[in-house]
Amino acid sequence: MKLGYHLGYWSSGPPADALETIKEAEALGFDSVWTAEGYGSDAFTPLAWWGASTERIKLGTNIVQMSARTPTATAMSALTLDHLSGGRFVLGLGASGPQVVEGWYGQPYPKPLARTREYVEIVRKVVAREEPVTIDGKFFQLPLQGGTGLGKPLKSTVHPLRKEIPIYLAAEGPKNVALSAEICDGWLPLFFSPKTDAFYRAALEEGFARPGARRTIDDFEVAASVPVIVHDDVEAAAGFIKPSLALYIGGMGAKDVNFHHDVFARMGYEDVADKVQELYLAGRKAEATAAIPTSLVEDTALIGPAAKIREELARWESTVVTTLLLRGDAGTLRSVAEVLA
């Protein structure tokens, strides 16, 4: 199992010591480094800025929100970063949720799976540069229909360094996970648990079995964001993670449309997820955090003494996950890498 470093998206400003930590990740033999975007910092710029000081480590977006850019604009950034990095770029895409898509980007959210299919198709056509890009889809038309009538099919002026750039899809629901297996090269789960491996394995196999699927389970990447905290006190370690879980379960999305809440409900924590959401949306964030049991944290993270983490790692190694994406400063990465070695 490979290790990656996930910077995430910024809060009020750039994370401290980001470049130092990225360099340490590369020196430790980490396979990849990833950036993200919400409705503040973007994913491409930090990856280019800090990635310029690296030589080997893969540079990935986890994730670029599709509603933020047209497919051709995303493909342009992917082509550019792939050239600048010497072929180390991985394009991670995601649909986000209706609150951000419609509230921040002003784009429609309905039918995200069908929209994703068209989006990925266009990105691949741009990168391949085999012919001018045309599509007459339900969501995208190239050239645009009903405009001035002067639009014409074009292909990138830039020749690709690689005819195919790996595309990973962030997905949580079974239909979207199956789509990632069908049309992409990897899947980016956010709250994965070994206890749900069979559920997601079945969703992936459904995608692999579809006509024209690009990959099989043997050459498909699954890069999961997994908190790892080495600490003698399990409860204290869980305490570092619970506030973030409360935010995602309770506040990331509307009451009736929160995909993160649904992940934990499928995991067997439906009552907990409902309570956390109720408390969080009522503004009682501390109580929402306190309502999360340590067992839920342990199901989705590796926490506690080094010996406990090493023992539990075996559960993860038997799953579909191929890469653990870690967070933290350079010291954290060193300690975790030593434990997981």
Task: Note the topology.
Elements: E1 2-8, H1 18-27, E2 32-35, H2 44-51, E3 58-61, E4 64-65, H3 71-84, E5 89-94, H4 98-103, H5 112-128, E6 135-136, E7 141-142, E8 167-170, H6 174-183, E9 186-188, H7 197-208, E10 221-225, E11 228-230, H8 234-251, H9 259-281, H10 285-290, H11 294-300, E12 302-304, H12 306-317, E13 323-326, H13 330-340
Helix pairs in contact: 1-13, 3-5, 6-7, 8-9
Could you characterize what this model shows?
By secondary structure, the protein is α/β, with parallel strands linked by helices. The chain has helices spanning 18-27, 44-51, 71-84, 98-103, 112-128, 174-183, 197-208, 234-251, 259-281, 285-290, 294-300, 306-317, 330-340; strands spanning 2-8, 32-35, 58-61, 64-65, 89-94, 135-136, 141-142, 167-170, 186-188, 221-225, 228-230, 302-304, 323-326. Strands 1-2-3-5-8-9-10-13 form an 8-stranded parallel beta barrel, surrounded by 4 helices. It has a two-stranded antiparallel ribbon with strand order 6-7. α2 links the parallel β2 (32-35) and β3. α6 (174-183) crosses α7 (197-208) and α8 (234-251) crosses α9. It is globular and about 65 Å long. The mean pLDDT is 95.
Mean pLDDT: 95
Main sheet record: 8 strands, parallel, barrel
Query: Strand order within the widest sheet?
Result: 1-2-3-5-8-9-10-13
Number of strands: 13
Give the end-to-end Cα distance, rounded to a whole number of Å: 10 Å
N-to-C SSE series? EHEHEEHEHHEEEHEHEEHHHHEHEH
Secondary-structure-based class equals: alpha/beta
| Share in β-strands | 5-15%
Radius of gyration: 20 Å
The coarse silhouette is globular
